[in-house]
Amino acid sequence: QLVAYEVKRMRAEEGNKQKILRHIKELAEKLYKNENPYPAVTMHKVQKPTEGCHLRLHQKPFPRLDEGTVQWIIDQATAKLQTAPPAVKAEKKCMVPSGPPIAAILERNGNALANSARRLEVVRNCISYVFENKMLEAKKLFPAVLRAMKGRAARHCLTQELNLHIQQNRAVLDHQQFDFIIRMMNCCLQDCTAMDEHGIAAALLPLVTAFCRKLSPGITQFAYSCVQEHV
C-alpha cells in the first residue's frame, strides 16, 4: 500500500523531519493495531478487607444467594457466548494496485549507488598510486578517501585492496607509503562501529602485522605499532 499510494507523500516530506516522524508514527500505530486488534481486557480488582474489619460491630452478614437467579445469570452468559462472533478476526482480502514502477522510487537511490561506486573507485585509485609511488596523485585523492571511510563499503574495499598488495609481496614500504597506509588504516578503524569488529577490524588484523618499513638495518617497524590504540 505504501508503494501504491504514499510515494508522492514521501517525496513531499523529504527534508522535513517533523513530517517524516509523524508519518512513521502513523505507520507504527497501524502496524501495532494490526498485531494487537483487541484492546486489553480490564480486570476488576476485588479489594482485600482491611485488617481488623471482622472486629467491627456493624458487620453485615453475607446475603443468601438465590440458586435460581445465579443459574439464570450463568445461562444468559452461556447463550451470549454461543451467539458471539469468533474471536479471530476474519481476514479482509483486498487488491492493492501495483503503484508506480520500482524504478521511479529507486531513481534517487540510483544516484547514491553511483556515488558509492565512485567512492570505491577513489579508494582503489589512491591505494594504487601509493604502491606505484605516485605520491602527488595520491595526495590529491587522499581527503576524498578519508571522507569515504565513513561508509562501510569503502572500509571493506580498503581491506580487500591492501590484501591484494600483500599477496603480491608488496608489504615492505618506504616511509611515505607507510605514512599513507597508516593514516588510511587509522581513519578506517576510527569510523568502525561494534558491528565492524568481526568484519573490518578482523580483516585488518593480518594486514597490520604484514605491512612494515625498515627504520635502519635490522630494525623493522610494523603497522600494528601505529594502530593498536583503537578499541
UniProtKB/TrEMBL annotation:
InterPro entries: SBF1/SBF2. Residues 99-231 form the SBF1/SBF2 domain. It holds the Pfam family SBF2. It comes from the Eukaryota. This is MTMR5 protein. It comes from Galbula dea. The gene is Sbf1_2.
